[in-house]
């Protein structure tokens, strides 16, 4: 394929390793000749639809709405312009396996941090209508059949007795309500799904389903207005005006360019539209839970000022629709703030490996999926070490997206409900307590479903997205020694000391520029985590501090650290007595004899029977299989 002499589009090519970018999207070329594998960097006006498998439905869509088609090993990409209509109620962003109005699932690629592969192994991929690659302004708009649906079911290949009727009914009705489709459009859509999406056409049955949808479809709504005597109608009007959503038991409404959850602020906003009695306020809040848009999907991007969105680590400009996460930090790829830089260097005490992980902790906060299952403890027994200053900086950086559930409240399902809709949980100066239970600690760290209970409401399941950060003068002790806790804890030593106090440091670390630099560092930290396969960068400083913590917090390990050379050949009961005495001297909590024996075995010591003075006794011997 040769490049046309008449170009209306300057293409930016990014070098790939297979299908993965070799570097950041800031590094590109206008010529792919020297690239073995290459992709075109997209923009916010382009939408590339990736059909991961070939199907009759996909072929018909291309034939009906011809555009640039790039063949892949399993399917093909169709290139379109983003629709200019305001009807798109489900925002078009980078999705994987997203259902379309046409009933097929696709991947969407869009934005300046996305690319579409056009070259592999030194060869351009096969293309149709290839002239459009160099004239992107002439691409057609994304057709209705490829608009995103808010449903998740899969229609492709459905046969008789596989629920086609109910699936088609649900799909047509939802599409009609989502995009205000008229009768003619619904008839065309029903015919397309029946003939090209289903494995076996339903024929007349499909038309019967369509008729049911048309009968169900509401007639033109009567005009609604605010009326203090009609709370139902008033709630419906306010729901639309304030764009109210109901997510995980919380009401969110749009204020300026963001969604916030605060019942008091919501009532104050309502008071600007209609003045009501307190009894009406309570009634409205209850009605909103029914009238508001119910949000069941938990996968949200992080919204930034200026129309920017952090979507899977990439910053793009799109309309993200509803998201509970609005981070009030200006995006600037080149941002730098000397005060923040100097402070982080102070906190890390000049250790680059520690500074790297601190930045990745900030990146962890931005990651709502695919994050390392880690909990961060900023530990420092002395005063003026920067812990509290760091916490204040992060709180101001995340603003309304932080909460502060203490560690000893993690098994209280009402307390952990406050994690919903937050990006970080920050508890400052936690007590050096002994934690008997740790199941919720592990579950919250991994983002797995956990039961929460809003006050005066029924319990519900949520998946935690908040990064867990704690500061302490003494580390807490966990009863769980199975390794599940150990794998999750990251101990960050705060062992520097302020020599000259700056009374304005908190203000300096929370300026607009400071937040922009923190955002830049967080994005770079998140990118490193993804580059490490979802893991934090190895830090010798942190590994050593974390190991010291577990030795000191595990009385058996601590005992072995001090008496390992005196154990071989000694009676098990004598060693246990030594251990109990050691714990009493050190102020540690001793385990029972059975648990101590299990810990000894895990450490490589085997209990063996031996005859001493004519009596059978049990002694400890080094397990040779461990060597």
UniProtKB/TrEMBL annotation:
InterPro entries: DNA_primase/NTPase_C (IPR004968), Helicase_put_C_phage/plasmid (IPR006500), Helicase_SF3_DNA-vir (IPR014015), NrS-1_pol-like_helicase (IPR045455), ORF904-like_C (IPR051620), P-loop_NTPase (IPR027417). The keyword Ligase does not apply. GO terms for molecular function: ATP binding; helicase activity; hydrolase activity. Residues 353-507 form the SF3 helicase domain. Pfam families: DUF5906, Pox_D5. Keywords: ATP-binding, Helicase, Hydrolase, Nucleotide-binding. The keyword ATP-binding applies. NCBIfam families: primase_Cterm. This is DNA primase. It comes from Domibacillus antri.
């Amino acid at each position: 394929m040769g490049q046309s002499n008449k170009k209306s589009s300057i293409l930016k090519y990014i070098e790939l390793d297979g299908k993965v970018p070799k570097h950041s999207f800031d590094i590109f070329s206008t010529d792919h000749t020297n690239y073995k594998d290459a992709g075109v960097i997209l923009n916010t006006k382009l939408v590339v639809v990736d059909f991961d498998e070939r199907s009759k439905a996909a072929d018909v869509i291309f034939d009906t709405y011809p555009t640039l088609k790039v063949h892949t090993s399993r399917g093909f990409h169709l290139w379109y312009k983003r629709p200019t209509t305001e009807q798109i109620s489900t925002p078009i962003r980078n999705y994987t396996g997203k259902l379309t109005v046409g009933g097929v699932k696709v991947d969407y690629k869009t934005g300046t941090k996305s690319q579409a592969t056009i070259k592999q192994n030194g060869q351009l991929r096969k293309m149709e209508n290839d002239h459009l690659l160099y004239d992107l302004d002439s691409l057609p708009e994304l057709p209705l059949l490829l608009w995103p649906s808010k449903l998740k079911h899969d229609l492709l290949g459905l046969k008789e007795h596989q629920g086609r009727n109910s699936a088609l009914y649900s799909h047509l009705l939802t599409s009609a309500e989502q995009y205000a489709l008229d009768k003619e459009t619904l008839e065309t859509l029903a015919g397309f799904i029946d003939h090209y999406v289903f494995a076996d056409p339903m024929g007349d049955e499909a038309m019967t389903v369509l008729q049911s949808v048309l009968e169900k479809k509401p007639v033109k709504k009567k005009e609604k207005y605010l009326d203090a005597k009609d709370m139902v109608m008033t709630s419906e009007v306010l729901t639309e005006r304030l764009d109210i959503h109901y997510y995980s038991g919380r009401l969110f409404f749009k204020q300026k360019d963001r969604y916030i959850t605060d019942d008091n602020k919501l009532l104050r906003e309502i008071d600007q539209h209609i003045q009501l009695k307190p009894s009406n306020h309570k009634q409205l809040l209850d009605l909103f839970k029914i009238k508001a848009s119910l949000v069941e999907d938990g996968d949200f991007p992080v919204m930034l000022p200026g129309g920017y969105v952090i979507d899977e680590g990439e910053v793009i400009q799109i309309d993200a629709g509803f998201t509970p996460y609005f981070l009030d930090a200006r995006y600037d790829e080149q941002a730098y703030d000397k005060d923040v830089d100097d402070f982080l260097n102070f906190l890390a005490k000049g250790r680059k490996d520690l500074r790297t992980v601190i930045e990745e902790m900030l990146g962890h906060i931005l990651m709502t999926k695919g994050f390392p299952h880690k909990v961060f403890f900023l530990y420092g027994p002395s005063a003026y070490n920067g812990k509290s200053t760091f916490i204040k900086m992060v709180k101001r950086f995340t603003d309304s997206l932080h909460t502060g559930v203490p560690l000893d409240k993690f098994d209280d399902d009402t307390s952990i409900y406050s994690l919903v809709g937050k990006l970080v949980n920050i508890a400052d100066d936690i007590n050096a307590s002994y934690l008997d239970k740790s199941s919720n600690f592990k579950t919250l760290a991994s983002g797995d479903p956990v039961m929460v209970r809003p006050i005066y409401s029924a319990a519900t399941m949520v998946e935690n997205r908040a990064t867990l950060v704690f500061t302490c003068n003494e580390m807490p002790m966990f009863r769980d020694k199975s390794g599940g806790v150990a794998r999750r804890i990251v101990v960050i030593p705060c062992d520097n000391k302020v020599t000259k106090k700056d009374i304005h440091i908190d203000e300096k670390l929370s300026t607009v520029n400071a937040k922009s630099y923190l955002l830049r560092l967080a994005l770079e930290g998140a990118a490193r985590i993804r580059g490490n396969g979802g893991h934090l960068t190895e830090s010798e400083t942190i590994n050593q501090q974390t190991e010291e913590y577990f030795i000191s917090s595990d009385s058996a390990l601590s005992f072995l650290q001090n008496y390992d050379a005196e154990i071989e050949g000694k009676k098990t009961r004598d060693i246990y007595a030594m251990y109990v005495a050691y714990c009493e001297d050190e102020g540690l909590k001793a385990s029972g004899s059975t648990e101590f024996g299990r810990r000894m075995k895990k450490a490589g010591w085997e209990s063996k029977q031996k005859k001493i003075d004519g009596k059978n006794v049990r002694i400890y011997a080094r397990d040779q299989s461990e060597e």
